[in-house]
Amino acid sequence: MASSPKAVVLLSGGLDSATCLALAARDGFDLYALTLRYGQRHAAEVDAARRVAERQGVRRHLILDVDLAAIGGSALTAIDLAVPKGGLAAGIPSTYVPARNTIFLAIALGWAESLGARDLFMGVNAIDYSGYPDCRPAFIAAFEQLANLATRAGVDGERFRIHAPLQHLTKVEIVRQGLALGVDFARTRTCYDPDADGRGCCLCDACRLRLAAFAEVGVADPAPYQDLVIAVPP
Amino acid sequence: MASSPKAVVLLSGGLDSATCLALAARDGFDLYALTLRYGQRHAAEVDAARRVAERQGVRRHLILDVDLAAIGGSALTAIDLAVPKGGLAAGIPSTYVPARNTIFLAIALGWAESLGARDLFMGVNAIDYSGYPDCRPAFIAAFEQLANLATRAGVDGERFRIHAPLQHLTKVEIVRQGLALGVDFARTRTCYDPDADGRGCCLCDACRLRLAAFAEVGVADPAPYQDLVIAVPP
Question: Nearest-CA residue of chain B relative to A155?
């Protein structure tokens, strides 16, 4: 019996990456989940990634440190920059981490090559992408091209495939997809600025997008939040 | 007076990156040196990078940890894989670290974006490249394209430039160039498998290429080696 092909799946512990992991499982891949601990303000995301990986029955979950706080430039890693909570604004928000997805995909590529995996999954999302340049389809396509020049596999004529199955889905569609695949969203965390217990703030862009999506689907978001939310416009 | 443009320069502490740093200085850039401590077997390289950065008068030297030993697949980071010492062979050697240059450039890109630098320097070398796929000109060109899709600067219509000024030089030409620019090669380290005192083994591919180049230039290599070397064929 041929064994399943391996896939490396970037797993942040959020709603998108949990759904992406479930899609890779549905497609028959043997799962290798990769979580980068990059100097986020909080550990809640990494704990969530552990719970999601366990539930999905991954073959291995690698948690790797890379200190992006040292390079600066983002409200997500800097103590002295506030996470914006005034609602979605035009342009690239201060929570953008310079070149984060490039760095994450590069490390995933290295692990994939070492494992003999040729498929990488990432839960980026071009519609509700909140203004990040490295969530666009053109970025994913350019990375795939790079991957095949950067590696031993590329030299040997094999191809890496970068899967971004959420790319053209809205947040509402992602929630529906995840629910259909049995994702336990209670295990996921999305907030950019949770409290010490890992409860969401309800006000950052990530909370707003997530809560609005669950509201539209008509399902209660099972993740914990700091306050009872009546209705937060996205 | 306009200030000099900033450049992020990848600095391993070897002969190539020291020469690359000197070239960036010659071109008038304000230097930000980046050294990645990625789980190499030895610390000699990082110490060398510190000495080289100090001598070149860099504005800042950032040493950042990223544990590539955790992703496996290379004799340079694994304790249980031997560094080959039998002389240069065809194909990609076991010292290849999966996707290393992609990961290094990605982190350099993030720092550059955060600093407001638009120029990245890397001392890769396509001629004496020892068989690594991620030293080829096509790889560098693909990364430059990716950089401009991956970043805020790219969205704003600015351009990143990836400089690989050693790309088409032989090791002999690099040594000559470095000597002409006053690089103190005594501060650099190249060996893949140095002893506890940081002295080169003379037998790994990196030592062989370096020693042969100094021999051809007719200058004694001022770096320390474990044994007196008469003549080691490359």
Answer: B133
